[in-house]
Amino acid sequence: MASRAKAKQARNQLGARLAGRRWLRGIGLEGSGDQYHVRVNVDALTPDVRGQIPDRVGGVEVSVQAVGNISARLPGEDRDS
Amino acid sequence: MRLESARELKQELTGVLKDTGLAQSFAVLGTAGVAHEGRILKPRISRKARTGPPQGIAIGITPSRTKSGHKLALRLQDPTPEAHQYAAYAAGKARDEIDIQYVGAISAGQPAPASGYERRVRPLQPGYSVGHYRITAGTLGGFVRDARKRLGILSNNHVLGNTNAGKRGDDILQPGAYDAGRRPGDVVAALERLVRLKAGSNAVDAAWAVIDSSLVKVNPRYGTRKLGAARPAEEIVSAAAVWKIGRTTGLTRGTISAIELDHVAVGYDKATYSFDGQIEVVGDEGPFSEGGDSGSFILGSDDAGVALLFAGSEEGGPKGSGRTYATPLETALSLLGLELALES
Lengths: 81, 344
Description:
The complex is a heterodimer of chains A (81) and B (344).
Chain A: H1 4-18, E1 24-32, E2 35-42, H2 47-51, E3 56-57, E4 60-66, E5 70-72
Parallel strand pairs in A: 2-4
Antiparallel strand pairs in A: 1-2, 3-4
Chain B: H1 3-13, H2 16-19, E1 34-36, E2 39-41, E3 57-63, E4 70-76, H3 81-93, E5 98-102, E6 129-132, E7 138-139, E8 142-145, E9 151-155, H4 157-160, E10 171-173, E11 187-194, E12 201-202, E13 207-211, E14 241-246, E15 250-262, E16 264-267, E17 272-275, E18 278-283, E19 297-300, E20 305-313, E21 324-328, H5 329-336, E22 339-340
Parallel strand pairs in B: 4-5, 12-17
Antiparallel strand pairs in B: 1-2, 3-4, 6-7, 6-10, 8-9, 8-22, 9-13, 10-11, 11-13, 14-15, 14-19, 15-18, 16-17, 18-21, 19-20, 20-21
């Protein structure tokens, strides 16, 4: 765990590395108080995707969540994009 | 892989071969684990002969973007170690041409019960159905004022602005058209301005519409609660308790599960847009939001204005009920040059 500022630096570093990947659904901070780690959201956590995400960046832990597709919350818009 | 190969592999993995006496060993495992809720479970090498999937795993075939056209689809309902081990085994057999997703418990589809927030309401009140006349319906997030002190409604671009297609002066209905709102009787406001969604990075999905306050009265309370000031974005913290009232799911409570999320890819009717600086919320009991809740304000446990809800995921979150995505309310207000109207 790291401070919010340090975790944010790690998020920026990893975000620059992963930007543009089709399976990426978001990269942010998770934690509580002033203890944070980097969270990476992905479409589906296949072995191939998991292999592209490090366990730590700049000394900050990285966790991964599979969230599927994200869509705007209108009736009838919860579909594959 | 080719469709025929996918079918053969599916048949093998579903244990049909067991009946033909060609039982396959469960010893061939992939080198990487599969995950549930962030935990990576490394598969253990097992010599125990296995033929079919454990209970709670569904196997199918899904189109793939590769030239060969198809891949195996594995859906896990219950994240037991046995299920993870089986998924890793299947990934090895499919040579990673597999789509593995945790979907939570699956039940027979039933229409969502009415929340009560789909109906017509006067005076106007946050949480109820609203929308541009050419869309289905979203949620009236809250009331705002611009620099000229004009009263208006704040919600999403894809709710009030018809996802970039709306023009200044377009009719806004309460309830939205999906909930039988019609022109001219249900017109309550006119689209004033939207933050255009664009390729590249977006900060917010937001728009506002001006209310003719000589004709339409408002009640700014969220149920019986009164909205507080907007919380500065840098003061929004992970693990904080929040709540919202939305058109579809009504009152729900949840927890901020991530903050400062960049590269959030959100699918709309005609395009996918990327958002930076977002927050993520999970429901405490079931989904925090569903389709139709777009535009809801998310409030803190102290009733401060925290965020503007606009999207949700298919998976993840407690019981696989999905995750909700929202923009710090302060960001939306700032980009549109608005302040909250806390009194009617």
